[in-house]
Amino acid sequence: MALARVQTISLIGLVGNRVEVEVDISDGLPGYTLLGLPDAALTESRDRVRAALINSGLPWPNKKVTVSLSPAWLSKSGSHYDLPIAIGLLIAQGVITSEISESLILMGELSLNGGIRFVRGVLPTLITSRNFGAKCAIVPLENLEEARAVPGIDSFGFETLLDVVRFLENGENVQPQFLNTFHDPSGELDLLDVVGQIQARRALEVAAIGGHHLLLIGPPGTGKTMLAERIPTIMPPLSIDETLEVGAIHSVAGSLGTRGALSTTPPFVAPHHTTTTVAMIGGGSHIVRPGAVSLAHGGVLFIDEAPECAHGVLDSLRQPLESGTVTISRAVGTVTYPAKFLLVLAANPCPCGKFNGRGRSCTCSSLQIRNYLKKLSGPLLDRIDIRAFVEAPTRVEMASEVHGESSAIVRERVLAARNIASERFQGLGWALNSEIPSSQLRGPFKAERAGMSFLHAELDAERLSARGFHKVLRVAWSIADLHRNPRPSLSDVESAYLLREGTFL
Amino acid sequence: MNKQLLGATGEDAVARYLVARGYRVLDRNWRIRAGEIDLIARSPDGELVFVEVKSRTSLSYGDPLEAITPLKAHRLQKLALAWLVTQGEWGSSYRIDCAGVLISRDGRQEIDYREGVL
């Protein structure tokens, strides 16, 4: 047969399109034409495929080869077309004679010696390929773990082109095809390591319960990063759907190596304060890469030294914070990535960082101190529900043999509180206390009478804005869930009020 | 075997190949300033055939036919037209063929003949 057809997928963002790779071999001068809007990496596939075939001892046709990737209007990029093109060439040459099903998806980059290399985006590719009726997939062995995470697709991983040929011809499967299970690899980090910090621990716990964004303020070296890193360990593990969604984003970004495809631990992403807006929200020309906000989807986005961030970077967080998604437009298309995360900002109390206690060693002027935290824009601070002050642990705490609670214990309480909340919000369209709409907070989700009068008094005294009023109530609900109160009591509201104001600002 | 001898051996082989199939060889190594046509023949059904022959002693530099780049093929087309004009055959039906000849050390010849490549 001089004509062959195999199936693969082109991925833009998290959305896949079915792509049919057609290979035609006709008489004529040796030549290779690749049709279907290929980008540079794809155009180079000719040389990779040729070398891989020859070095595997497989024939390369010295004839006129036409490879068409249809639909022709869709621009295609990436190196994962190597394997389907190579297999198409072998079918067209009659080397592979068995029938290849249309429900088989092939993807993989070839190395010159005939090996099959890791590609990005296998997880989202296979998730969307189910919509096209795909039932099985051949992927690089290094991608097998993530491929196996997709239910409904039978995935096979191979290390070399020859192994794939043998598999397609004889059904020979040389690789151990292990079964994956969802796992929770956290355990390196634990709140046990944190000395003291009673107040900050509490803030973390409440933030994890209600999904409240958090600002940690404290001098350098007091443990802001240490605390933030441990937030994922007290958050509920991701559900199966969430795990796949988070895995899909990391698969596109190529960062699954650092994070297992089936890890149920919420991700923790900490971009440096010199990061650019593109790195923060995503972008790039060929493939639209997910940014830090999407990599943190389902987990924690931690920005240390937040006031030092370049102008505009923090403000770019406003759209994802508002909508839970981020939409990026590029030449290849418009891509929407999920971006729902718990934002944790950390800041020094002043530019020199030493404004601690009575501030005796601080060298900043009062004006500098006042202006420092003002760099965090008002609209962004409005979305921060909790401000916690992280102080240096005291001598007594450092010397103490008594450890704080472990992450497991805290997570137990967070889980229980979240269950109470999700039961309460059943059928209402939101699941977390931080998402209760303002109008509902004055209606069905009021606090107890005493609590409400306390807030009204603060409002009258102009110590609380209308927005602040609602935020205190949302945090109060989380505290009430923690204490298993059916409705926020006066003390829950007061605690929430203190958490919002912090002890410093 | 030097380059000229290799080329001539290959062209001889292709000429014999064509004659055996009923072709009549009209001209060989027809040369003008723009280049050279290796073989010009008339097929049994009267069609004019211009043949480019590439000879090699091994495949280590790739298939002989791979050496015919699109640029060379284009030049061949122009040469064919030039021949037609100068021989008063303008308007005749013609085609351009390519032949790859692999001549191994022991003298065995393998011909890969492609008809109508352009």
Describe it.
The complex is a heterodimer of chains A (505) and B (118). With 505 residues, chain A is of the alpha/beta class. Chain A folds into three domains: 3-170, Ribosomal Protein S5, domain 2, CATH 3.30.230.10; 191-408, P-loop containing nucleotide triphosphate hydrolases (Rossmann fold); 436-505, no CATH class. Chain A has helices at 40-43, 45-55, 82-92, 122-129, 144-148, 161-170, 198-210, 224-229, 231-234, 240-253, 277-281, 292-295, 318-323, 366-372, 378-381, 395-399, 407-424, 438-442, 449-460, 466-482, 490-501; strands at residues 3-12, 15-26, 31-35, 64-70, 104-106, 109-110, 116-117, 136-140, 154-158, 214-217, 268-269, 282-283, 289-290, 300-303, 325-330, 333-338, 342-347, 386-389. Chain A has a five-stranded parallel β-sheet. A four-stranded mixed β-sheet of chain A has the order 1-2-4-3. In chain A, 47% of the residues are buried. Chain B has a single domain, classed as Trna Endonuclease, Chain: A, domain 1 (3-Layer(aba) Sandwich), CATH 3.40.1350.10. In chain B, 30% of the residues lie in helices and 36% in strands. Chain B contains two helices and five strands, in the order αβββαββ. Chain B has a five-stranded mixed β-sheet, sandwiched between helices. The longest helix of chain B has 18 residues, at 3-20. Chain B is globular, with a radius of gyration of 14 Å. In chain B, 26% of the residues are buried. At the A-B interface, loops of A face loops of B.
What are the low-pLDDT stretches of chain A, counting only 5+ consecutive residues below 50? none
Approximately what portion of the residues of chain B adopt beta-strand conformation? 35-45%
Uncertain segments of chain B of ≥5 residues (pLDDT<50)? none
CATH class of chain B: Alpha Beta
Number of strands of chain A: 18
Structural class by sheet pairing and helices of chain B:
alpha+beta
Biggest beta sheet summary of chain B: 5 strands, mixed
- Overall number of structural domains of chain B: 1
Portion of residues in helices of chain A? 25-40%
Quickly give the CATH architecture of chain B: 3-Layer(aba) Sandwich
The figure for the number of domains of chain A is: 3
* Helix percentage of chain B: 25-40%
CATH topology of chain B: Trna Endonuclease, Chain: A, domain 1
